[in-house]
Amino acid sequence: MNVLVLAPHTDDEALGCGATIAKHVQMGDTVHTIAFSTCGRDDLSQEATAASLVLGSSIDILTFPVRRFDEHRQAILDRLISARELHKPDRVYLPCSTDVHQDHEVIHQEGMRAFKHCTVLGYELPWNCRTFTASAFVRVAQDDVSTKADAVACYKSQAHRAYVKPEAIAAQASFRGLQ
Fold first, then answer.
1. Backbone angles phi, psi at 63, to 5 degrees
2. 95, 16 in Cβ contact below 8 A?
3. Distances (CA, A) of 5 to 56, 59, 60, 94
4. What are phi and psi of 60, to 5 degrees?
5. What are 36-50's pLDDT values in tens digits?
6. Which of 170, 153, 130, 132 shows the shortest CA–CA distance to 50?
7. Cα(60)–Cα(178) distance, rounded to whole angstroms?
8. pLDDT tens column, 52-80
């Protein structure tokens, strides 16, 4: 299976669906991520590359200006259409429809347009979602959650954020697993 992950910013892929990426890689699927912005920071580009290696996926890192994706909708859509032709994904992961971050909204909307003929699943970033209704779950193993935590740990510049702590990652996975 060919899997494409759309990450508005570097770290969104690991935080939003890192365990799922690890599971796909473990199953032998090809996983490619497109990160649309490094927020103008070289360290985030390096951290994203390291996280991608931990997850076992490949990554393209683009340089759209943070919080300005709405001004670049057509360029983003064009990039997504190119990615559709290049990667021919069977499944696409992108931010969920209730994510309130303006850049995440653009990637969700344009991703739905570009990939309307394949399976598209939204991932949750709890600090950006006032509500989240799961309509599909991917069963992951503890090893997948551990791989996600290791990938997130590559984002050393984000270590001060509560949601990157291993215990927060495990708690979210446990809660979703109960559902």
1. -130, 40
2. yes
3. 13, 9, 10, 6
4. -110, 130
5. 999 999 999 999 999
6. 153
7. 34
8. 999 999 999 999 999 999 999 999 999 99
Would the CA dihedral through 15, 19, 20, 22 be positive or negative? positive
Q: What's the rounded Cα separation, in Å, for the pair 80 and 115?
A: 8
Among 148, 34, 36, CA closest to 93: 34
CA distances from 14 to 18, 59, 82 (A): 4, 12, 23
Classified as helix, coil or strand, 131 is: coil
Q: How many CA atoms lie within 13 A of 169 on its CB side?
A: 25
- Distance (Å, rounded) from C-alpha 85 to C-alpha 102? 26
The amino acid present at 8, given as its one-letter code, is P
